[in-house]
Amino acid sequence: MRTAQGWTDYELIDATDGRRLERWGGYSLVRPDPQVIWKTGEINPKWKSADAVYHRSKSGGGRWEYRRTVPKEWHIEWNGYIKLHVTPTGFKHTGVFPEQAANWALYIDAINNAKRPIKVLNLFGYTGAATAVCLKAGASVCHVDASKGMVATAKRNAELNGLADKPVRFLVDDCEKFIAREIRRKNRYDAIIMDPPSYGRGPSGEMWKLEDNIFDLTAMCRDVLSDDPLFFALNTYTAGLAPAASKYVVASALGIPGEKITAEEIGLNVTQSGLALPCGSTVFVEF
């Protein structure tokens, strides 16, 4: 497993019985996590002093219980490189997936080592952490997500880092429809990042299910890669989907020999136990 490094503003303090205890800057949050199937007890005293706890509802969604005053939004910094807005939402998320720092480092190194202009396509770009990282490294970026709210936050994250004037496009669009138009327009990209959810809907109600749609979308990406591509990255969070399965998708859809592809779990180090929490997987191809 490759774990995220470089965080000082984020810490996974402990994890037990379906929950995480995390520090986000100056605030501690408890959130559910289905990957946490062990029951080691709430040994760390910080469980009792957490600032906010997210409770799931049996009917779907959930709510935050605020034990202390927590701002609606604050920001954290990764590795002295980028800042990101943190906003606890009604669906437990905060707008940041800290384990993705394991991949941000790959993107930065690849772009820096290319020593040429790089065009990045960030599909399912969410709140734009990868977009900010790639812009900071000197690439131009096209950021696509179906959620208007997420794209708005991605723009704000770019502004937070002084990147608003960099070469970037933020688009609210269905990723598959966007790729189809890019193929017709013959637009090409040197690097593609795909960070799809397990389930989702497009801006016009289009249904997305990763197991049903990921192969076809990956195959479409082959037609928007440039003649001299730099990298392709696929991040998946679907429980039970092995890295090897995602690797098979990428290898067969893009026509790349398996030995050129890295596929591995990514995760977060747990301070209390010294172990690591799995947080999905990444397939990475550096051409």
CATH topology (fold) name of the largest domain = Rossmann fold
> Any idea what the CATH architecture of the largest domain is?
3-Layer(aba) Sandwich
How many domains? The number is 2
Which radius of gyration do the C-alpha atoms yield? Answer: 19 Å
Overall shape: it is globular
CATH superfamily of the largest domain: Vaccinia Virus protein VP39
What is the number of strand segments? 17
Helix-strand pattern? EEEEEEEEHEHEHEHEEEHEHEE
Give the spatial strand order of the biggest sheet.
1-16-17-15-12-9-10-11
Low-confidence stretches: none
Give me some keywords for this one.
Rossmann fold, alpha/beta, 5-stranded mixed β-sheet, Immunoglobulin-like, 287 residues, globular, single chain, 8-stranded mixed β-sheet, 17 strands
Overview of this structure, please?
By secondary structure, this protein is α/β, with parallel strands linked by helices. It has two domains: 2-86, Immunoglobulin-like; 98-286, Vaccinia Virus protein VP39 (Rossmann fold, 3-Layer(aba) Sandwich). The protein has six helices and 17 strands. It has helices spanning 101-114, 129-137, 148-160, 175-185, 210-221, 243-254, and strands at residues 2-3, 10-16, 19-24, 27-32, 52-56, 62-66, 74-78, 82-86, 119-123, 140-145, 168-172, 191-194, 199-201, 207-209, 231-236, 261-269, 276-286. Strands 1-16-17-15-12-9-10-11 form an eight-stranded mixed beta sheet, with helices on both faces. A five-stranded mixed beta sheet has the order 2-3-4-5-6, with no helix packed on it. α3 (148-160) links the parallel β10 (140-145) and β11 (168-172). α5 runs parallel beside α6 (243-254). The longest helix has 14 residues, at 101-114.
